Amino acid sequence: MRINYNYIKVIGLLILVGGLFAFSKYRNDHRKVPEPNIEFFGENKLFITEATVSKLLIQNQQTVTGQSKEIIDLNELEIALNSNPMIKKAEVFMSVNGELSAAIEQKRPIARVHTNASYYIDDEGSYMPLSSNYAARVPLVTGNIKKNNLKIVFQFAKAVDEDEFLRKHVIEIRQNDDNTIDFKIRKSDFIVHLGTLKKLEKKINNFKAFYQKALKDNVLNKYKLVNLKFDKQVICTKT
Asked: What does the alpha-carbon distance between residue 72 and residue 77 come to, in Å, rounded to a whole number?
């Protein structure tokens, strides 16, 4: 009987390759995850720290560092990160050698509520808690504010954030009991009564025109109330 050594060699080679592959896969799956790499995008100031993000990267009630690569559920980690009210968006991924990375985009606050509770309103109109790491320089929001109904005050805060003049001058926004809006500006004592948000752009332009004229005439400090309620005129009450 003639032995086909080429056939035996092929079988042996396949067994060897299969064994090496199985060994490599076993070793790779059981590779220990090192300290995660955390990157922040967007806002430069950190409202949430790397240490806090690391504590959110939990698997089986333990930090991911030192755990086997095979048990890491990236989707579960992303859900944990995205549930944090400081985080706008988080993505978690792992390299072939078991290095875990998290890309974090923080929320960006545009106003700070200061009533019986204190928190930020972010640029999408959502609740954002205060941070012990950094305080944003944004207008204060006072008055009749409810955390589950920020629509009106957010709309005006968004307009302030998107307008260079308002962003520079507005320091306080007040929502009244009838849902009308007042605001105060830097280095002036008068109150600006905006009224409702109807024809908001027109009212803002009216205020800019009033401010520039009053500043030029040096009479800004002579008023206690500037009423923008009527979109075709500005009514001022002197002190």
From this structure: 8
Contacts of 107 (CB under 8 A, 6+ apart): 47, 85, 86, 87, 88, 120, 122, 123, 124, 126, 128
How do residues 51-101 score in pLDDT, each as one tens digit? 889 888 877 667 777 777 777 888 999 999 999 999 999 999 888 888 888
Task: Output 118-122 pairs: Cβ under 8 A, ≥24 positions apart.
Answer: 119/147, 121/150, 121/153, 121/154, 121/157, 122/88
- Each residue of 226-237: b (16+ CB within 10 Å) or e? bbbeeeeebeee
| Residue 215 to residue 221: CA distance in whole angstroms | 9
Q: pTM here?
A: 0.80
- DSSP character for 97? T
